[in-house]
Amino acid sequence: MTFHFMQGAWWVWPVALALYLLFRLWYDNWRGPLSAQEVAHFMHIAQASPGADHTDMKVMRDFLENDDGKEFVMCNLVKLHAGHVAHPVTGQSSQPLELLQEYFKQFRPGLLRKAGHPVIVSRQAAGYVDAWNAPPDPKWSIAGMMRYRSRRDMIVLATSENFNRAYPFKVAALSQTFSFPTQVVLEMVLRPRGAVGLGLLLLASLIHLASLLIKGI
């Protein structure tokens, strides 16, 4: 009976389900919103961090205090310096884009561990096409949308030692930037939850079908 069960590969379905549940345990925020104590703790650290001079602390505090426990996407618009700039460690002449890539390279491991990832990164193709009561286009270089599992994850990363080490590369690379958090209300792309679920479903189906074909042979 056990041999027949294995030959039919029915075991693949509970395995696929278990893998998907493990993925959701990692990808989703199960800890709820930030507590008042956590907000006070992280704000204290943030105010002493290298990025404090470039952060509106009132906006940051309001964002953390109004945590809904849900994921969000940070919208980033950046303008790279024109020409070469000094490397923040060696002082050597460097390309701004290379320094920005080095910044993300150091920031990326912590981001991925907390299920954060880019949603889209694109380069500006033209100036403002539609702009109302807006300041002149500074000629943005890159627009990026970064997914965070929670506001807690974002502030943990932003106050970490790895981020503090990486931050000078960002400052050296950029001449202008602004970032603001957003909540997705409409999209026409497949999110990782759906992509992973469909991928596991397809893989399980192929394994099951292959086992049935082998059994038939």
What can you see in these coordinates?
It is a single chain. This protein is of the alpha+beta class and 217 residues long. It has two domains: 7-31 and 187-217; 34-67 and 71-185, Alpha-Beta Plaits, CATH 3.30.70. The chain has helices at residues 2-7, 12-27, 36-46, 57-65, 96-113, 151-158, 161-173, 192-216; strands spanning 72-80, 85-86, 93-94, 117-123, 142-148, 174-182. A hairpin with a 6-residue loop joins strand 2 (85-86) and strand 3 (93-94). The radius of gyration is 23 Å and the shape is globular.
Quickly list its features.
217 residues, alpha+beta, Alpha-Beta Plaits, 2 domains, four-stranded antiparallel sheet, two-stranded antiparallel sheet, 8 helices, 17% strand, globular
List the helices and strands and how they pair.
Blueprint: H1 2-7, H2 12-27, H3 36-46, H4 57-65, E1 72-80, E2 85-86, E3 93-94, H5 96-113, E4 117-123, E5 142-148, H6 151-158, H7 161-173, E6 174-182, H8 192-216
Antiparallel strand pairs: 1-5, 1-6, 2-3, 4-5
Helix pairs in contact: 2-8, 3-4, 5-7
Structure summary:
The chain has 217 residues and is α+β, with helices and mostly antiparallel strands. Helix content is 49%, strand content 17%.
Please indicate the count of domains. 2
At CATH level 3, the topology of the largest domain is: Alpha-Beta Plaits
- Strand element count: 6
Taken from the alpha-carbon principal axes, the silhouette is: globular
**Helix and strand pattern:** HHHHEEEHEEHHEH
Structural class: alpha+beta
Q: Uncertain runs with pLDDT below 50, 5 residues or more?
A: none
